[in-house]
Specification:
By secondary structure, the protein is mainly alpha-helical. The chain contains 7 helices and no strands. The mean pLDDT is 85.
Amino acid sequence: MELVLIEFATASLIELALWLPPFWRWRKPLAGVLTIALALISGLLVGTDVAFWTLLILLFNAYRVINLLRLIEGRTASDYLFRVARRSSWHVMTWEAVILGLARLNHIYNPSGLLWWSGVAGLQLLIALVILSSTVRHLKTTRPPRGIKPVADRDLPSLTVAIPARNETEDLETCLQTLLANNYPK
């Protein structure tokens, strides 16, 4: 079990090195090697100890593999892919470290069921507070600006509507009726 965890930590360190600028140009071969390594390590981890925490690690490793496959495929722009994949890798590896830490604490102290359920309730409360704060922040940032003066009809820009259509006899009629029913002045 210790050897599997050391291999897991090594694969995580290699994945962290992937996000450094010198290694970014070799992302496709490194991501391919990491994908295979994470699949093997996940199988070994579940094979050595089938428990709740190993199944959680397996789930997170599946997401890491999908994230690495996005790097191999490279369908999006490189700078956007770098930011998004790096951020998701950091989040997933952080949660895996938390799960492994909790599994280690469980192994050392062997707490009672009541303590575990209290921990789960506390974790749910923490997650709920994070979601609440995120929702409040998004509500504040997406609120329409105040103090916008109304615009006169003559100041509005003229619009042209182009409708590309091919074999759209049923939908085209509905689209044109909707456009004619619009109350935009220009």
